[in-house]
What does this fold into?
Amino acid sequence: MIGNCRVCCGVGWVCEIHSSKAFDYELGCACSEGMPCECNDSTPPDTSQVIIIIEEVTLH
It folds into this structure.
């Protein structure tokens, strides 16, 4: 990700509807879902094998 990106202002994400604005309430727009900016070259992690374990704790 480029820290001084002119599109996303270094956030790494843009508004899905307004892709020329940073996905940020103060710096750009957050009226829809966020999507990676062109400067954000990170690949989303593979979550197909993720298992969620919920443990109940009782307090005495």
Remarks:
- The mean pLDDT is 84.
- Strands lie at 13-15, 34-36.
- The chain has one domain: 1-60.
